[in-house]
Amino acid sequence: MAPSKALRWAALVVVALGSPSAEVQAFCAPRHRGTPVRCALGRGIRVGGHNNRIRLSERDDGNDGGVEDPNPGGMTDWSEEGGDGGEKRSFQDLNFFEQVQEWFASPEGKEDVKTYTLSLGIALLLRLLIVEPRYIPSLSMYPTFEVGDQLAVEKVTKRIRPFSRNEVVVFNPPAGFREIVGDSSRKAKEALIKRIVAVEGDKVEVMGGKLFVNGVQQEEPFTAEDAEYQFGPVVVPEGDVLVLGDNRNHSLDGHIWGFLPRENVIGRAVFVYWPPWRVGTSGMY
């Protein structure tokens, strides 16, 4: 936010809270009526006489005959103004809703509303089409991700580049997962994150704690431990991928609920941005 905008927001908050100091500075100076004051303000200008009237002349010899000050007393009395004959209240005297209306009607308010609306629209468009943040709630992908990690998920390349083994993806739960947890469960509506271990046409098998794809044992430095289950062999159908959690023995993943349709994929995990000591792309390939 630009400094000028930040100052305007700060000023609005101060005014809305009714800052006494702001009121004193702006509106609490006293008027003195009927007190003779006489002082020289400069050549041809004198203040004095009854009611503090100001007279202007071209000479400083005390010969009045100039123009009367339309505002005797030396300052504007806001309470006596009002084009409709009524009393015009200061901004501080308005209630909260009237202050909001006054701000929206002001040039500054209109400009700020345009700026914030445009910024919000761009942010929503970026989140919808390009990248969005995600939060890790469990240890199913440990040690690649820990609980509390926040990561960016890009959503563009899934449309132009096929998925590959070892990529980490975020996806909407498939039908097999929803059947296990129940369609009415909150988990059935939450996005999941797993690693692709096989793509369409691959023959997959887990035996002896190791993953084999097309008969070749896979090197998986990102896993927490060897699998304690047997799986397969199975062939990944067209249009699907097989995903497993890096924490193999503590993950509700494809070895339980089956294959993941590619259309369910939201995007690829690209980097962790929070907490600061976890920033990076380690293990995401």
Classification by helices and strands = alpha+beta
Q: Summarize the amount of helix as a percent range.
A: 10-25%
Secondary structure tally, helices: 6
- Total DSSP E strands: 14
Radius of gyration: 36 Å
Stretches where pLDDT falls below 50 for ≥5 residues? Answer: 6-64, 73-85
Strand content: 15-25%
Give the helices and strands as they follow along the chain: HHEEEHHEEEHEEEEEEHEE
Physical arrangement of strands within the biggest beta sheet: 4-5-14-6-7-12-13
Main beta sheet strand tally, sense and closure? 7 strands, antiparallel
**Looking at the structure, what is the overall shape?**
elongated
CA-CA gap between termini: 35 Å
> What is the overall pLDDT average?
76
Describe this entry's structure for a reader:
- The chain is built from 6 helices and 14 strands.
- It is of the alpha+beta class and 285 residues long.
- The strands form 3 sheets. Strands 4-5-14-6-7-12-13 form a 7-stranded antiparallel β-sheet.
- Strand 8 and strand 9 form a beta hairpin.
- It starts with a helix and ends in an 11-residue tail after the last strand.
- The relative contact order is 0.11.
- About 25% of the residues have low confidence.
